[in-house]
Amino acid sequence: MQKRQLGATGPVVSAIGLGCMGMSNAYGPADRDESIATIRAAMDAGVTLLDTGDFYGMGHNEMLIGEAIRGRRDEVQLSVKFGGMRDHAGAFLGFDGRPAAVANFLAYSLQRLGTDHIDVYRPARLDPNVPIEDTIGAIADQIEKGLVGHIGLSEVGAETIRRAHAVHPIADLQIEYGLLERGVEREILQVTRELGISITAYGVLSRGLISSTPVEIGKNDWRGHTPRFQGDNLAQNRALVEKLGEIAKNKGVTVAQLAIAWVAARGEDVVPLVGTTKRARLSEAIGAVDVTFTERELQEIEAVVPVGAAAGTRYAAEQMAMLDSER
């Protein structure tokens, strides 16, 4: 497995990471045993970066990962997002970045994961009521205690990145980045590169849109509430994927491998996170690590899916409003 360093001061991780959110019912029911087997298969294949959030399944995801890595903790780096508050039905109530909340969220994550430290800890979203300096300073305090290794950010804009980095070095920014979502290229990517911060890119397959088979949305699948999976938008986006599929076929790879490899090819400072709940899909994703492109191939891909080609926003309006990265 190839390796990449997260930022100028962060850990060295596998060139592809495993996003574990889908293992806790975000996309409908997931098979617990298969999910654990998938995490362990990823580790066996050399994938070291496991990404989660303490609010995924309201703690379920962390407990699942904790079980999967038991006895093998030293083989992985755990990336954890915190701060999301939810009610009994799972609805989001906002984000809490207060220093006291940081210590509280961290304590619970350590317990659920069965570990004494988290490698990269990050606020899931910017708390509009708390200066980012206060949140980052509180995480830095946990680094001093040995409970956190490095600080990351998630879905924040250029100004917030600069303010956070001035308090403590930031290892990476987690943000959506893929063939159908390239907002990071407008300004954010230039700032992270200026400051020596890596990108861990989620949504590289556009939540299943980029697939050889059309994704099916069940009643408990939150994607059904997002614009890109609705009505004419879905039809237009599937048409884009079909064109990408033709390019992938000519190259001898799957369309998912093409998309993952395209993100990895954006630079050594970009690490794609692939979310999957099945070992078969994991093997496909790992196969993308060795895929490279000629300049002509990159131009061909660009012609098929230029910036802004996707129909619909990546989140519903109320969620888009929470994204500091979109301001």
TrEMBL record:
The keyword Aminoacyl-tRNA synthetase does not apply. It holds the Pfam family Aldo_ket_red. The keyword Metal-binding does not apply. Signal peptide: none annotated. Residues 15-304 form the NADP-dependent oxidoreductase domain. GO terms for cellular component: cytoplasm. GO terms for molecular function: oxidoreductase activity. Keywords: Oxidoreductase. This is Aldo/keto reductase.
